[in-house]
Amino acid sequence: MMLDTSDQKNFVAKVDDLKVYFNSKRGTVHAVDGISFDVYKGETLGLVGETGCGKSVTGRSFLQLLPIPPGVLAGGSITYNQQTNSSQRIETGSKPGFPNSRNFEFKKVDLLTLTGEEIRKIRGDSIAMIFQDPGKSLNPTLTIGAQLSEVFLQHRTEEILEMAGLGSEAPGAIRRFASQRNRIFDKWLVNLSGNRLTKSRVEKAVADLVAKALSDTQVPNPVKLMDRYPHELSGGMKQRVMIAQALACNPDILIADEPTTALDVTVEARILDLIQDLQQRRQTSVVYISHDLSLVRRICDRVAVMYAGRIVEIGTNNEIFKNPRHPYTIGLMKALPSADTARGELLAIPGNVPELINPPQMCRFSSRCAFATDKCKNQDPQLEKVTNSHSVACFADVAEISGK
Amino acid sequence: MISKKDNVGQPILSISDVAKHYPIREGALQRVVGHVRAVDGVSFDIFPGKTVGLVGESGCGKSTLGKVVAGLTDPTSGSVRYNFNTQLVSISSLEKNKFKNFRRNCQMVFQDSFASLNPRHLVFDIVGRPLKVYKEVSGYDLVEKVVSLLNQVGLGREHLYRYPHQFSGGQRQRISIARALALNPEIIILDEPTSALDVSVQAQILNLLNELQKARNLAYLFVTHDLSVVRHMADSLVVMYLGKIAEAGETQAIFAKPYHPYTKALMDAKPSFDEGQNSKAKGLEGVVPDPARPPQGCRFHTRCSLATDKCGWEVDDVVRWLEDTPGMFESLTAVERKSEFSAVLSFSDESSAANLKQEMRSEKLPASMRKALNKVNINEKNVQIEFEPVEEILLREKDGRHAACIIEPKKVNQEA
Hints:
By secondary structure, chain A is α/β, with parallel strands linked by helices. Chain A is built from 17 helices and 12 strands.
């Protein structure tokens, strides 16, 4: 919407005027209040902002992972430019030099209006997510192998059957076993003498896929890891398992919600390398949600700065960090302790984030902004282009601010 | 230990050779089978009006050390000595009323302000409690005193009768600080006070801490994992790894030129914001070893990119390597140790044993580890390995700085 998309095929997802509200006793919280941005193919888009600015809600709405109710989708759409012909997608590995061939058709779907059945096909397959706390997002009662095989059983049944040498003539019970859609007698059926061997072949095929997914994330000894439970692993190792799970099906879009916040810096650097390396090999688009500016500066191609449910500034990495135009973006950067700020002279942004219950028509940052005028208190600034790729939502004379 | 000669006056708190070991109990009788060496011989001084930064990865013992220093748990060995009228006295030998005196002079601010403020108490109770316990003020004066404390941390009278859940993270941390300030302490131990906060709020809290330090000549022990914060806040720095000090010295000197490869690795892992887009972060291989069985020699040698044959390669390193190698670990049946540096590894079949012998001399192991290897003998299913024994590498002084590393500082700072 605010970004020039001359090449319509270029974007993989387009968020348009997304609004997510939450009903609470005290009123409607406008957690995300009309944000629009595009995600281009193969890029890393950083979504930065402080706690409660709506960045995680934005990320989760891609996969319909929001709690509704109390959440309300109050408007907008997320258009996903899906590559159809999914049977071809599986074989990309066996057809080198044939990426994006004419066999691929683009189909546009609105992720917010899909039914449960439809979104389940996309979730974990063409759009995947890495969560913040790997300790909480892995199931403690399942082994790593069992958790990872679910992804393949849900989305890669045909491939599994083919690897097991069965193809389309697989018995119904085995087919259902390989897609986790067991019927009432299937547990008994797959263990019949005729099926037992094929079942173990299917299990072997799944285990091979899981081992390959794990070895892609450079874990030592993946076969041994598959028999372990999450609590036996270190935080970095758990996050690698999460990444293996998310990237198992070669997603088009990876939503990374603060994947390294719970990790040590020494581990963080290696996890980021890993995500970047896998992303480049597979041309995945990454939406990287973080509050860490130095990290976003290091890894993102484009950056969207969010404040109180709105995007206040969006642009390429250089535009945002070398030439910030919004007072909030500038304030965030100055608040970081650096080598040459004298002690006690950090430029903190005064005040707190305003409450988002029925916010009035005004610039939401105006109460903390040093450049606020009467206009800011009466009108709501919209994102306006500074350059082709750089947009800012601010009335103040941007050149004047960045000069100061 | 990191005291500099020109540092005027005595330290307010002297930590000498402090160790804290937690027993591991097993079995029906709960017999002690080993110890987790959370802190293992750490010494440094804290001077009035100065900030000591304590950094390290999670699990390196920095929070445990903070608790020992605050007197919340007793050290297993070593002592924390507090400056009582220009005399350093060990706090564990203090009488009850003198210990109380120490407690009021040494306060703590915890990381998680959700967990460290009682949700059923009003702000007035929380901040006023220390004043009541020490019978400083009472009645109407107490209210006024609490209000003045709240004013100092940027809150006001209107916040007196609210509960902690009604505040944001930054405000709650301010309440914790107000509570710590109530008795006018000399030292405040800050255990990751800003790691749960946003950058704009973090800047507010750091500024507040600095103002208070100037106004009251407070000494801080700032425990954190965030190097950019510690660089901004601390006068001197203590870098911990696996319960020991890896490097200690003046903050600016360490940031200009780290003497220990671990310090260097920490700095490389998180380039500061100014370094821009193309700065490359370098992580560390592997995980922090088990503190119940810390590595011999230098504790960092298992992950160090500069490790030499003198850094303490041992039998455990071979076992760890086997664990990560598919196929080999499964056939390992027993490890019979003669010492940390010499053992016989038994396998279930001869081919694995032969394989190990071959791999021990191959490129798959670090060159320095192969160099430290004295002997590999094969006897059917058993492989005898022996490394060059190495003494523990202690903190040593080099040009007024302290680092526990045998590698020349020049080499540490060379680009790999």
